[in-house]
Amino acid sequence: MRLYLISPTHYLRGRELVKTSQYWTSGLTLATLKALTPAGWEVRLTDELIDAVDVDWPCDVVGIGAMGPQIARAYELADAFRARGRKVVLGGTWVSIAPHEASLAHADAIVVGEAEHVWRRCLEDLAAGRSRGVYRASEWVSPDDIPHTDPHDYPLVRWDRFRSSLFYRQYFHWPVIFSRGCPKACSYCAVQTFYRRSYRTKSVAHVLEDVRRIKAIGGRKLLFLDDNPIADVDAAKELFRALIAERISWTSQCTIEIARDRELLDLAARSGCVSLSIGLESVDHRVLKEVRKGFNEPGRYAEDLRALRARGIQVIALLMLGLDGQDTSVFARTVEFLVKNKVSLVKFFTPAPYPGTVFHDEMRAEGRLLDEDWSHYDYGSLLVAPTGMSAGDLRAGFDESYRAFYSLGSIARRMLPPPRANLVEHGAYVVANLKSHFFLRKHPSAWGTIS
Taking Cα atoms as reference points, which of 392, 327, 322, 389 lies closest to residue 350? Predict the structure, then answer.
């Protein structure tokens, strides 16, 4: 039997597929599904962000995973394969939390939630010409039962460049996972909806085996794909202590709370943490309380960011523009705050009401959804009617915030003088800033690519 596992790309508004020649990490979903697939199946993996999908490959079953704006392309590919007589199973965050009827219209089966307990049965059924329709696990998988993956199965790795290019090795980060889920209740977040605020961590031994598999093929820069690796502080400290001896560098995303536990932050730095994506979301506590993220405490941001910078940890700040309680002053105030506090990179977002989230239900009840075309649920489309400004003001302010943050003057103020620690990493982030600056000069509304 032949199985084709695909991660689709997504469309820009002009209906062009988003493509690139290289990407700086790789997802683990396809490799994990391959590891879960019973012996006897021939498995092919394609990430469409880089490689082309071969809709004419004579496979028996096609598995397609999607989140966010990928869903429109996922449905399109599913239809194309089914038209050729292939059995299709859809999965991923979006498929799990959106109305199941929408995905079942394009697939023979869907996986809802985690795949570990249902993947084998789903494949057996499809191979035998039958289907239950919805395959939902009755319990969460134990983290240490998540299979180890083979780095050679990571579809976005460009092996020729990894071997020959120092630049590629500097920027490429090998994917690893320590935990699943997040216990926070942020109303807009699909993660807490998908996992129902559950949280589990792998054993340190399990993570170390993953790390050593990567080191064995020459990788020493890691990306923890966790949504919140520090939610269990004691477990995180145990992991960080163990990583010190591995002599790797790593990055991840987490909450700003990492800066408020000195031992945790010191251990993270000593274990090789060089950068973190942190959801600040807003510099206004009142705004954060509306989306159930009041624990961020913006009054402490300046102190938190100083603590991170002092340890040579670059911060990629994630912020939303257009939330309730924000008016047109939010754009200049936010950029001024980021520049003053020497934030390395920024990703701005407009509010995205993902189906299944509390935020989506609230916006629908208030009649404020502007667009229910799921292919538009990306990083900067106007999906919700703002209350403190017009939609035009939000569009213009959003784009101008990017230009202002990545202006040459802003880059100089934020990145100089460099911190004492991790100077090479800091230099890489200076280059990333300059690349963003010149890209924005050619593409004024670049949120679809930068974010």
Answer: 322
How many beta carbons lie within 10 A of that of residue 373, not counting itself?
10
Do 173-450 and 2-136 have the same topology in CATH?
Answer: no
Using CA of residue 17, residue 18, residue 22, residue 24, what is the dihedral sign?
Answer: negative
Q: 173-450 maps to which CATH number?
A: 3.20.20.70
Q: Could you tell me if 193 and 181 are in contact, meaning their C-beta atoms sit under 8 angstroms apart?
A: no
Residue 449 pLDDT more than 70?
no
User: What pairs with residue 91 in β-bridges?
Assistant: 65
User: Which strand (E) or helix (H) includes residue 395?
Assistant: helix 391-405
| CA separation, residue 372 to residues 11, 75, 362, 440 (Å) | 15, 16, 14, 28
Residue 441 structure tokens: 């000069």
Each residue's pLDDT tens digit, 416-439 = 999 999 999 999 999 999 999 999
The two structure tokens encoding residue 8: 């689709």
The letter for the amino acid at 59 is C
Is the sign of the CA dihedral 118, 48, 66, 192 positive or negative? positive
CATH architecture of the region 2-136: 3-Layer(aba) Sandwich (3.40)
Spatial CB neighbours of 153, under 8 Å, sequence gap ≥ 6:
30, 31, 34, 35, 45
Q: Which two tokens stand for residue 223?
A: 């990306």
Name the residue ranges covered by the structural domains of the chain: 2-136, 173-450
pLDDT in tens, 138-158: 899 999 999 999 999 999 999
User: Tokens 């090789």 — which residue?
Assistant: 272
Helix ranges, 285-380 (H): 285-290, 301-310, 329-340, 358-365
- For the record, the structure tokens of 110 come out as 């869907």
Instruction: Flag whether pLDDT at 451 surpasses 50.
Output: no
Q: Which two tokens mark 168?
A: 């590629």
Q: Report the chain's terminal Cα–Cα distance, integer Å.
A: 38
Task: Tell me the per-residue pLDDT of 41-94, one tens digit each, with 9 for 90 and over.
Answer: 999 999 999 999 999 999 999 999 998 889 999 999 999 999 999 999 999 999
